Amino acid sequence: MIRRGPWKYITCPADEPQLFNLARDPHELDNLARFRKIEPKTAEEQEAKEMFDQMKAEADARWDYDAITAEVFHSQRRRRVVWDALKLGSFTSWDFNPEDDGRQKYIRSTIPLDDLERPRSLPFVDVHGAELKSSVVNSTRGG
Known about the structure:
single chain, alpha+beta, Arylsulfatase, C-terminal domain, three-stranded antiparallel beta sheet
């Protein structure tokens, strides 16, 4: 692609060339490259033909289309080999690999939380300082 002022030229060996005047056609709906094959009738059509010829000459001088095409095919073959290798064995997406395991992250137990944490903390005691066997205090028995 070449851009000069309002002019945008796109070329690819596999597709028809494209030429747009972005000042008049910002959405690129009118491909002015058609004037390369027909005789222009207006000044605008003549300007488009001249701009096409100028940009095509610049692109042809600047780029080696055969070498670019060969490199694209080579790159596609390399990516196919990598993709085939990635499909073997267990697939792990390259863009998401969490560092933490949710199975180890949360407490999943029917044991009351206080009893579960008791070994990691100071012992629970009653109002008299005696160690409790359970963290649950029964207020009806004066606990």
